[in-house]
Amino acid sequence: MQKECVLLQGGGDLASGVAYALHRCGMSVVILEIPHPLCVRRTVSFAQAVIDREIQVEGVKAVLAESAEDIQRIHLNNHIPVCVMPMRDAMDALRPEVLVNATMAKRNNGMTRDLAPLTIALGPGFIAGKDVDIVVETNRGCNLGKLIHEGPAEANTGIPGEVMGYDVERVLRAPCDGAMRHVHDIGAVLKKGDIICYVDEIPVRCPFDGVVRGLIMNHIRVTKNLKIGDVDPRGIRECCYTFSDKALAIGRAVSTAILFYKRTQARPKWVVNSFHPENPPAGPGNSESLTFPG
Length: 294
Fold this sequence. Notes:
The protein is α/β, with parallel strands linked by helices and 294 residues long. It has helices at residues 13-24, 49-52, 68-76, 87-94, 245-264; strands at 5-9, 28-33, 54-57, 60-65, 80-84, 98-101, 118-122, 127-128, 134-136, 147-148, 151-152, 171-173, 178-182, 189-190, 195-199, 202-205, 210-215, 221-222, 227-232. It is built from five helices and 19 strands. A nine-stranded mixed β-sheet has the order 3-4-5-2-1-6-7-9-10, sandwiched between helices. It has a four-stranded antiparallel β-sheet with strand order 12-19-17-14, with no helix packed on it.
């Protein structure tokens, strides 16, 4: 039996939690990334395979694929392929049954419902029933992971989730335009005031006692106010190498949406339009599921 082909646009930490969940559900996931991903939580982002050629997180390996043959081989080895190619080329080559926009761009960056039989987007910037079939709520709180079938997700607050009384302080931002220079890396347990890195010659210091949970790649150039790091006041190093509860909750939500679609082989009811008798809608015993070619 062929497995569903799910094209996941984006390979950051939240997107990787989704890819992990779908992979564990037995789906053939392909991650589409840009040539120079700027991941902060590099140790749990499958996008890092673009730089390091492969990365393993919680027992699942993602491998850089440079051709269609690579994608097929990586799938056969039960890993997740990560591709760098234009969106349109990826759509033409893979013909995915499901397209998930997991870029967390907080704006619609070209997503339309006609790109795949089922389209899903994470977080704000998309309208379910218009831009995509389903929007997944990504804001922490009682609605985290909610499947929205009509309308947008909650607006972006710009404030990260509170941990031990810290929220905005947890995020490190570039003090100026310039090149990153690490003093410490992800996993370092530091005291308040310790220098984590420099941007050009300006030091970026630890805002409180804690562990460096995320830090953008060394030596790359960044722009002022770009998010470059993340400090966790709990000080648990293991959390630097595992998916967050948020990423896993969103992954479960996307899995649920896809499995429901596969069970019914139909888009949500508000999408159903009139049809010609010679071209009936998809349904049990009357569907053409798009799968990974070959």
